[in-house]
Design brief:
21% of the residues lie in helices and 34% in strands. By secondary structure, the protein is an alpha+beta fold. A hairpin with a 5-residue loop joins strand 24 and strand 25. Helix 2 packs across helix 4, helix 6 crosses helix 7 and helix 7 runs antiparallel to helix 8. The mean pLDDT is 93.
Length: 485
């Protein structure tokens, strides 16, 4: 396929996977008997043996993690119930924590599918410069995907300078006091087909706002009062599954963004967090929030979810709800259009849809926006990130799949006031995989999850064959000349 007759500049920047970057994960065998056996063997060591072994572990791993002692303490707390109340020294607690810890090389396989937004902090920059935050999909052993970040500055002349990468990596930690709104919880249960008489018995005992501990306690109370507790098991599992799929993450305030790893936390995400599409969302009052729609995968099904934050220190994770929350690739508009939140999505695996809602978590209205029409996209068409507002309309980067399952990046222009109207769609793609970009984990693919405009230049971070990431730039005025009739 030939690209459009427009100057598209591929930049020299490259983001490659690095198997030296590791996180310290909890390691617990599935067999609970093995956990007890490991603990008993460690506790059989003499205090001097334990101290010498722990010191060797510190020597080997202290420089690879920012606070390995805190990690060991957290992981010991995960298994302390198997210690059976015995009073053991802090040395043995730390050593047990080490035995239930493993390193995971979270980007050893690939670093790809980037998305870029203006950074929340724009202080201290030269005139005309912008600091940016870029998310990437990192894939490690077992093809488990997580979210990582990079930062940098684009100056007034379009020169990109990336910040130094921290030598450390830290996982965002789940906050234990997540609160749930009972009405929203009720609506989601109905949508799941999981609202039963037994579920109603649980909900009617809960306050309007409740946490996971209150839900678990109430589930146990109702179970004890039922004549047939076994029949209640599926309801209990559905209630707790839904709660655990909506949670808060917290990072230390001094954490460099390049240290952040958002690793799968809930059952929904057990096999990966895929293709985050970040957007800076501006409310009607001018305040900004950041949203990231992504695909959670548990090995059997995909589930669209959304992260929400204002500062990338505290992050909320929620399930998306509604009859049209299906498939992959949802991208939120950066503001309401009229009174509506809007998203571009691909519900059926082939066509692009426009969704709208007055509640950002519930989506029950969708219409076809675009269908495949050009040779390079006849297999399917989807978005490559959130629409970008210009005076001429909404620029929407698209991906199209053609012969030999080759992915290319194209562009459409949507009406600014009524995005359901497609003003134009370029018949040729902007980016086609070059000979240097076509080999990788998934060959013949260029793909992006979100671009950004700075000083009339469109900056497109894009993945090459699901392996590494680069940048391309396009003049916005020149692009609009081709798009505006």
């Amino acid at each position: 396929m030939k690209p459009v007759s427009l100057q598209v500049t591929r930049r020299s920047e490259r983001f490659l996977s690095d198997n030296h970057r590791v996180i310290a994960r909890l390691f617990t065998p599935d067999d609970k008997g093995r956990i007890k056996s490991i603990i008993e063997r460690v506790l059989s060591l003499s205090e001097s043996e334990a101290a010498a072994l722990l010191e060797q572990v510190y020597t080997n791993f202290r420089d690879r993690h920012k606070d390995i002692q805190a990690v060991f303490a957290r992981h010991y707390n995960e298994v302390r119930g198997y210690v059976d109340g015995r009073d053991i020294s802090e040395t043995r607690q730390q050593l047990l924590g080490a035995y239930f810890t493993m390193e995971y090389s979270f980007e050893s396989a690939a670093l790809f599918n980037p998305s870029i937004v203006p950074h929340p902090n724009q202080d201290g920059l030269p005139d005309g410069a912008m600091r940016f935050l870029m998310s990437l999909r990192a894939t490690g052993e077992g093809h488990v995907s997580s979210i990582v970040f990079r930062t940098g500055v684009i100056d007034r002349h379009g020169i990109v300078c990336f910040d130094l990468l921290s030598p450390y990596a830290r996982t965002a930690r789940q906050v234990g006091d997540q609160r749930y709104d009972k009405h929203t919880f009720f609506l989601k249960l109905i949508e799941m087909g999981a609202f039963t008489d037994d579920a109603e018995k649980v909900l009617e005992r809960l306050p309007d706002l409740f946490n996971l501990a209150a839900l678990s306690h109430t589930v146990d109370e109702v179970r004890k009062q039922l004549n047939n507790p076994a029949s209640f098991q599926q309801t209990a599992e559905n209630l707790l599954w839904l709660a655990r799929s909506n949670y808060h993450l917290e990072l230390p305030p001094d954490c460099d963004p390049s240290e952040i790893v958002i690793f799968p936390t809930s059952e929904n995400e057990s096999k990966g967090i895929e293709d985050v599409r970040l957007v800076r969302f501006t409310e009607d009052d001018g305040t900004n929030s950041y949203y990231g729609t992504y695909t959670a995968y548990n090995g059997f099904r995909v589930l669209p979810q959304i992260i929400e934050t204002t500062d990338f220190t505290t992050i909320s994770v929620h399930t998306l709800n509604g009859r049209y929350v299906q498939n992959k690739g949802m991208a939120l508009f950066p503001r309401r259009v009229g009174k509506w939140y809007m998203m571009v999505s691909r519900l059926d695996g082939e066509n692009m849809y426009l969704m709208r809602s007055q509640n950002i978590h519930f989506w029950n209205d969708a219409t076809v926006l675009q269908a495949p029409q050009h040779p390079w996209e006849l297999v399917q068409i989807g978005n490559c990130g959130s629409p970008i507002e210009t005076d001429a309309g909404w620029l929407l980067l698209t991906h199209g799949v053609g012969p030999m399952r080759q992915y290319c990046i194209g562009v459409s222009l949507l009406d600014r006031d009524d995005p359901s109207k497609v003003i134009s769609h370029l018949p040729q793609p902007l980016l086609v995989p070059t000979e240097q970009e076509r080999d990788g984990y998934v060959p013949n693919v260029v793909y992006s999850c979100g671009a950004m405009i700075h000083h009339d230049m469109l900056f497109i971070p894009y993945a090459m064959s699901d392996t590494s990431t680069s940048f391309a730039t396009v003049s916005v005025p020149e692009l609009l000349k081709l798009l505006v009739p």
